[in-house]
């Protein structure tokens, strides 16, 4: 676990042994981190209330077929309210996933994604690429 990790009330970590957390990460209320296959949260990640991050999925035909790819959340990513990251997805550095968005595929760095399934809306402005403050709650 990295420095300055903050987790608020009712955060659920499914297994607890497959989670890597970078520095200055904040996970807000009622978040599910399904770490069965492994989750990596890079430095400066922010996960907003009621978001879900999965690292396992079941087969469509046979529910007992379980895939457990690692789900990777890059440095400076923001996963906003009620958003979902599906198993095995890599959110690239600086990605923002909009409220209620469902990320089913890897993203491009420093871009904003929204919708179901999440699609790229636009690139983030250059000023948003600056390093975050040491305290993620100070922003």
Keywords, separated by commas or semicolons:
UDP N-Acetylglucosamine Acyltransferase, domain 1, mainly beta, 18 strands, five-stranded parallel sheet, seven-stranded mixed sheet, globular, 139 residues
How would you write the strand order of the largest sheet? 1-4-7-12-15-17-18
Question: In terms of quaternary structure, what is this?
Answer: single chain
Write down the domain tally.
1
Rg over CA atoms: 14 Å
Strand content: 25-35%
CATH superfamily label: Hexapeptide repeat proteins
Count of individual helical segments: 0
What global shape is seen? globular
* Overall residue-averaged pLDDT value: 92
Spans where pLDDT lies below 50 across 5 or more residues:
none
Tell me about the biggest sheet?
A: 7 strands, mixed
Number of strands: 18
> Alpha-carbon distance between the termini?
22 Å
Structural class: mainly beta
CATH-defined topology = UDP N-Acetylglucosamine Acyltransferase, domain 1
Describe the structure in your own words.
The chain has 139 residues and is an all-beta fold. The protein has one domain: Hexapeptide repeat proteins (UDP N-Acetylglucosamine Acyltransferase, domain 1, 3 Solenoid), CATH 2.160.10. The protein contains no helices and 18 strands. It has strands spanning 6-7, 12-13, 19-21, 26-27, 32-33, 39-41, 46-47, 52-53, 57-58, 66-67, 71-73, 78-79, 84-85, 90-91, 96-97, 102-103, 111-114, 119-123. The strands form four sheets. Strands 1-4-7-12-15-17-18 form a seven-stranded mixed β-sheet, with no helix packed on it. Strands 2-5-8-13-16 form a five-stranded parallel β-sheet, with no helix packed on it. A four-stranded parallel β-sheet has the order 3-6-11-14, with no helix packed on it. The radius of gyration is 14 Å and the shape is globular. The model has no long low-confidence stretch (mean pLDDT 92).
